[in-house]
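To whoever is on call:

I kicked off a structure prediction for a single chain this morning and the downstream step that reads the tokens threw a length-mismatch warning. I double-checked the sequence; it's 318 residues and nothing unusual in it as far as I can see. Pasting both halves so you can look.
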Amino acid sequence: MSHDDIFNSRYGPRAARGGIKSQTARGKFGKNWWAQRWLRVLESLDLGGRLARGRVYARRGQVLSIDIKAGAIEARVQGSRFQPYDLKIEVTTIPLEKWILLSETAFNQAIVAAKLLAGEMPQDIEKLFAEHQLSLFPKSMDDLKTECSCPDYSNPCKHIASVYYLLGEEFDRDPFLIFLMRGLSKEQLIDLITKTGEPIKISRVKTRPGSVSKKSSSKLGASSAKSGKSQSSTVSKVAEKPTPLPLEDFWTVQPCSHLVGSISAPAVNASLPNRLGNFPFWRSNYPFIPTLEQIYKTASESAIADLANEKFNAGDRS
């Protein structure tokens, strides 16, 4: 047993300030199948007790930073010693020519391209990789090279295990990071999909600013003739700019007597943040999305109460 393990068994790791906290306080890590698939790779490495201690480190916020690059992950983890440990995980990358081959055979399938562009991992993508004797996820320890500055004799150690868990959560949020880990950036992947698969084609008519295409102008002229108005006057009305709201009146509270009908809260709180997903490597004791949902809920209830009261007072004034 290393010095770090002996110290941990007695006192636990030093408290880390501003560390990355796992979004799962208990139970399994990872919601989507691709995050769970990554964690199964981790569990297959036969880490023993280091796996459990890694989960504790991930949930306590002992990981101070994680930097994901093409084929490498660098991180700093606070252990029992004063100085945080530096660790690196090197992942075998897939050669560019293999990515191009995949783009010609797999990424050009409409359903695969659509899901990837929507930020979702297709369910059968591993099968598509296997058809070319490739694997999206590391298959064994041979695909992973790990090192940590801690004094633990085992490699990978619990510090590396904690980073593995947090990576699983990040993959849950952004599956493009899995491709980056294997050597292909998000921009490169999208470029391969759109240039080869071309799942969506949109034709646009290019016109100069303020100009009208011949086809649309002919229709406009015909409709103007029927209504007895000139084409130029119709175009000028379309081109009229709306009157801007005076800046000094922007934050002024106006009576709401014009409101009609019932006022109700939205069906889903924080709908846009929910669609965007968790914040990258969240660093708080409070979970990101549930906290925002509560803030939105409180704001809605307060706004409804204020509007209802204003509407009532406006009715008294009338």
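Update from on-call: the warning came from a stale cache, not from the record. Cleared it. Sanity check on the structure: The chain has two domains: 3-197, 249-318.
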